[in-house]
Design goal:
CATH architecture: Alpha-Beta Barrel
Structural class: alpha/beta
Number of strands: 8
Number of helices: 9
Shape: globular
Largest sheet: 8 strands, parallel, barrel
Strand order of the largest sheet: 1-2-3-4-5-6-7-8
Radius of gyration: 16 Å
Oligomer: single chain
CATH topology: TIM Barrel
Distance between the termini: 39 Å
Helix content: 40-55%
Amino acid sequence: MVGPLQAGAPRSIAGLYALTPERSDIDAMTKCVAAALGGGATTIQYRNKTAAPKLRLQQAFALRALCAERGATFIVNDDIDLARTVDADGVHLGRSDATIALARARLRATALVGASCYDSLELAEAAVAAGADYIVFGSFFPSNTKPDAVRAGLPLLYTAKARWKIPVVAIGGITPDNAGTLIEAGADAVAVISALFDAADVTAAARSFVALFNRR
C-alpha cells in the first residue's frame, strides 16, 4: 500500500481540481495527470466509469503514488471501497452513491468527503449537516461529459459561500475563458476534465486555470 500523503500537501480543496479522463492505458493516464500537476493542479479525482475493476485498481494505485510524490490531494469518485484499498485522501459522492456516514465509517479519520449538490442548496445543506468536507455545484455551462446535467446559476455560489465555511467547488463545461466568473462569485475550486485533458498542452492549460486564482 502507498504510504501516507506527504506532510505539507493540501488538506483543503482549492484551485484547480482535475478529474481524470477515461483512458485505459495506465502510462497515458499517469502522464496526463503528471502534466496537470506540473501546471499547478492541487487535487486529482480518479474518475473512470468504464474500466474493469482490475484496471481501476491499477490506475488508482498509480495515481495515488503520483499524487503522494507531488504533494497533491487524491480523491476517488463514487467508490468508497476503492478509496479505502488505495488509501486515497478522500472520496467524492454523488446523489445516488453511498452516504457520507458510510464513507466516514469506512475511510481513515483524516479522509476528505465531498458531495455533489447539483443545483440544490437543500442538498448542500444536508451534505454539510452530514459532515461533508466540500460541496460541488454544477453544471454551470454545457458539458460534453454530462450533456444532460442540470444547470446551476452563479447565485448558488454567492449563497453557499455566505452560508457555509467549507470549500465550494464549481463543475461543468468550465474553461479558462469562463472560469473567472465562477471564481469571482466565490468558487474555491473549479473541477475540470475536457478543457484540461483534451488540450494540446495539458500543463499550459492547467497554468491558465491557476492564473485565474492567482488574480484574486
